[in-house]
User: Fold these one by one.
Assistant:
Number 1:
Amino acid sequence: MSGTITNILLVGVGGQGILLASEILSETFMLAGFDVKKSEIHGMSQRGGSVVSHVRYGKEVFSPIIPEGDGDILFGFEMLETCRSLPLLKKGASVIANDLCIPPPAVLSGQEQYPDGLADKIGSRFPDFLLVDGLKLATEAGNPRAANTVLLGAVSKRLDIPERYWMEALEKMVPPKAFEVNRKAFQAGRSQ
Amino acid sequence: MKEILSGNEAIARGAFEAGVRVASAYPGTPSTEILENIIRYEEIDASWAPNEKVALEVGIGASFGGARALVAMKHVGVNVAADPLFTLSYTGVNGGLVLVTADDPEMHSSQNEQDNRNYAKFAKVPMLEPSDSRECKEFTRLAFEISEQFDTPVMLRTTTRISHSKSIVDFTEPVHDLPEPRLVRNAAKLVMLPGNARVRHPLVEERINKLSAFGSTLEINRMELRSTDIGIITAGVSYQYVREVLPDASTLKLGMVHPLPFALIREFAAKVKKLYVVEELDPFIEEQVRGAGIPAIGKDILPLCGELTPAILRKAFAKEGVVGANLVFAQGQSQELPLPSRPPNMCPGCPHRGVFYALNQLKAYVTGDIGCYTLGFMPPLSAMDTCVCMGASIGNATGVVKVVSAEERQKVVAVIGDSTFLHTGIAGLMDMVYSNAPATLVILDNRITAMTGRQDNPASGFTLMDEPAHQIDIPQLCRVLGVKTVRTIDPYDLETTKRTLAEEMARPEPSVIVTDRPCVLVKREGVFEKGPVLTVFEEKCTGCRACLKIGCPAIAWKPAEGNKGKAYIDYQLCTGCDVCRQLCKFGAIGRMK
């Protein structure tokens, strides 16, 4: 099955907008005519904990969760969480990560340190690694809050889905007045 | 028309298509979004009940009145609703009644992982179990038909992976021409006195036998013959994992997991060389299959605890010697780096934080309860000693003070949120007063059911439909129950909070402290308002780390050379609650200039 199914993991910290990003992905795949499943855990994780969302598409998708080690693309919203999810990927997977560090409680309190050199460690294991300064590119596109859309644009380049479906999904999922800024942010990410 | 829906959204859609008139629930992960989505359909009268027992009783009333009713709750909620459920099995229904139980294998957001399929067997009612969102919608519709055809409540069981996963759903037209609700008297059926109940019980037994036979012809119990080397009986999300990992195996996919369709199971067993049962948690299907004399393998190779995953199935079946392309265990990269964990935390500005800091300082023995404040257990607050179930904190405190020494009694404090207090805490407080138990109760009133995502409750002053409602006066309610000392405090005022707690802990009779600050996530206008954002004046900060002891995500430690460092406040996260400022003895925290 795994040859015909594309497995995308979205990871980050509760409150970062991961659920909306995974909804836009899923909507795009449905519009492009694929079967889609997505799964994540709500509840406790929303209180600043780690969040992992699974999105899978293909001709027919069974399991809503990605089998461990079958991940094709890791879409990381935060560096530490990106690293935490590397074991879920297959060899040769693509990693697109937002260059952002959100310190967890033990780091905030000074008991532990936020690990150094995470980007190098990811890059050495996954040659197809793209580090994106989502905040900077989103600010240039007109709104720092569209950082997730920049990343989505960068992810879109790894997937063989016509651009019009991405635009259609964006238009459906973001408020009308925010569409233009999100369209620009998406393009900024897509050209990375 | 088709849309990508979560299981919960699909159940809401199914309820609409089935012509449901009344929906009632108490919020609980992973069931909450069913009612939150049902309000899209204005034909349905949807409301939050104070607890699951009331929710089911409201549903039963609507059914007796002739309407279709849907009631939803998380798995442990059915424990609360079990009393009406078991007798409802005897009375049967008038309009169809469906009880959704959303189970939580792996305990993503729960205190236990009970398998509620056992309730269907225990209460002798049918249970359907969907395996994706499309089935969530279809099975909800079907459940109402079965309910009316067999005069029985029907349980619909989901798990977290079904409720919170999304997949594509096709919409269909709602049913029409359902009879208009009206009063119909049928005391012999609906008044469950012993004389009447004795007549009803044999009918319940007969019903379950008929349902088992019906199940063998039911489309949703589906035999899918592929290779006959192995056959797998499965249901729910486990079916998806089986299809993923063992695409060549024959499957008997059960849509109705109680009662089991034994005729169909025998037919399937006869067609395959080796029979397995793949199910999460209890060997519910397996034990019954084996009990019927059909050899099957299940929990011999699969875990009793936690969720199943494709990886668990891969390992188990590879070990069994089953071969297949998808059984090759993918070489996941091992984790080389030790990474700091990221547990959930109270939000910046959470009104619970100061209370738990004070309880920690006072070395209180805290009987806890279910809600965001259960996070008071986490370091650095570390101020919770027990947590059992909704409402338990108060009875637990009463029990503890009954047995420990007079000196230790003074340490005992129960904590409970507003919603949990109204859910099942009131009776506990009544007993605390009735027993004159000298414990202290802190009601953490943040005016919302916060943990499940900000649902209204009878103390919030609004309904699920966002309409104004009578707002329960919690301090007044406590006084009516006989509590002589009820004190309301501002939990952002640390000194008063600590002093009041110390005074009430010393009081040799029951007393109540109500904290009066809203949840910072409440979006309704005029409820929560941000205060002036705070900052650390670096020149005054001595690096004593006192402000870090409240574990606020907005405060961080900035290390410097020679084991020294200073605190700093993230102005984007700070809500201006002012608690950290009160902890700083050096005046190093103040308003941003």
Note: The first strand of chain B starts at residue 2 and ends at 6.
Number 2:
Amino acid sequence: MPGPPARRRVMITGLGVISSIGTGAPAFADALHHGRSGVSPITAFDTRGLEYTNACEVADFDPEASASDTGPAARGRATQLAVSSARMAVRDGGLSPATLRGQAVLVSVGTTNGEARELDGITERQVRNGTDAVDPAAAHRGRTSRLSSEIARDLELSRAEVMTVPTACAAGNYAIGYGFDAVAAGDVDVAICGGVDALVRSTFLSFYRLGTIAPERCQPFDRNRQGILTGEGSGMLVLESYDSALARGARIYAEVLGYGLSCDASHPVAPERDSVAACMSRAHANAGVAAGDIDLISAHGTGTRANDLTEVAAIRRVFDDAPPPTISVKSMLGHTMGAASALAAIASVMALTEGFIPPTVGFEEPDPEVEIDCVPNEARTADLRIVQNNAMAFGGNNAVLILGARP
Amino acid sequence: MTAPTVVISAWETISPLGWNAEEHARNLRKPAAGEPGPRTVAGFDVRQVLGPRGTRAMCRGTGLAVATTGQLLARVGLDKERRPAGSDDWIGVVLATSDMVQPLSSFNTDSWTRGRPYDVDPAQAPSLLMNVHSGHSAIWHRLRGPNSTICGSHLGSLLALSYARRLLHGGHARAVLCGAVEEHSEVRAAYTAARAGAEAATALGEGCVAFLLESAATAKRPPLAEVVALNFGFAADPDDTGTALTAALHRALETAGAQAAEVSAVALGPGGADTEVAAIRHTFGDVRLLSASADAVGDTESVSGAFQIAEILADPRCAQSLVAATSTDSEGRVGCALLRVF
């Protein structure tokens, strides 16, 4: 692979977080520090007939609080989460909305389900009402392309390249990686990028049918792990060049050093060790770092045996059997699908800025097959310079992001 | 910073007009039938085309993508039987597409009508997600480079080209199979009709187009066209669509260091809306407009931009000139591609 061409350094200067353990970067960081769990009984859909009914929902989300006056009623929940968190990130970054309107902006929003919640609802009403009629408003809201275009509309952008990146459960890292490339190349002034998903019944049932839903909690790397908990949320980041951040006196949270992508090209749902390892190595090469430089790995860490064994084997291979602490924030947030790696990236940013390692909570018993220091249950103080954020997805889509402490 | 030049080296399609690039191009020159009803790829059956292995749960769109990318690889000698060892890792796949409404509707209907909510077919789970087309194309053709899916309504193809170009610039891949795919289905037709309401919905189309995108410096075959510029904009207010598109076209010309008069033709988006044509006229004057694709293949949503570019590449009159493709969508996106056709 040829080396990357000369490029601008890319800084993270704004964060927007909506999660089951906290909304806004400070509350999110506090929850990570204290190892809070976002798990609760599902309210998003009727769970009758299901044995396991827990998930990590955002209980207190109020789209009216942060989105524009006219929009929320015409937006599905995932779009509302995306718009609200993007607004939050722009405000957090101290960007002037008036200036942003005329700048070259990339909006890239990762997702797994998009607005499938609206599409699920259409079919449910058809079956319940014994009709083929399609609810036009839901058909309108149910377009996944709107996750990104409604952000652009809300911010009244004019020179924006606006895309949704539906690369399943690695989508957040994909979208941030794309923002990194666009800013690094000098193509755009600002990238607003991240990932979002709302809790969706059909996705829950897919995982349920595959036997991967945990009864009560998500316990990555634990011998007694029982699977994933689905979750929802949104994480958005503002990226800009180092020069731009310095020129406007922006608060710099951290630096995006690079990223790597790979495809298993072997099985639609089962992860593959060598491809995940290749993805990490590509990310290191793209970021110009060595495995030994990584101080912390934020793992994909879904809480399934297949994930734990494959991911940890890949990590041990790349890190010569001496990996740094490797945590899973899914132990707190559940699997927020397309938002997962964006929220994990923001957790990594908070770890870099506040000097701590978020714990893997719910940990009881080590698994002899998973040799990793997962920082069980209690956060740890640590001076971190470089953090690696892993993501793997159905379709064999892997994406690994490398973040560095602010210059 | 000067970005390396990116070229289109080859293209393929399976479309309502034909099962390969040549047949599609030939039929594009014939007058469109103009009859009502969807424009589908007649006779396309996933299991017949790809065989029974690995296709039981494969949706139509994925079948179109796997078959089209396969034809493209074979056309340039990069199929897995013939390509050099090690090249699996540096060939990427980037496809634009739209929501998986048919598989999702079938899955949900099963869930609501069978005995228990989870009486669903687990093999269908990957087909509920939009990345299934590019993911399965990679599995089928053993492509381990970056594998991405882009969703941006009618701007999908141009956004996918932009994404793929940055993958090449960023050193993530050396070659990318880039394009878009949509399947026709009753559910898609019903949802589109519901959205259109009283307005007459345009005929829906389906198909897949894939381009081989490479850096000019490393391309091993004579390029068909250089991707000179890809520019985008957004109109939060529909009244600003023309302004936003005009601005994008001017930025594209600036990037190219070209004058408007050098552009010999512009391929229109499927709407071919008055505002789009007005922006083109405002920028390029009395330029030749290409709109045969939209008429012939119907509204293919994310694939429309790729069909427009295919029309440019198939038109001998576009050779040795700068040609643009424009696109707008109902959500506010606008964009254009500027190609130097060889």
Note: Chain A touches chain B through 88 residues (CB under 8 Å).
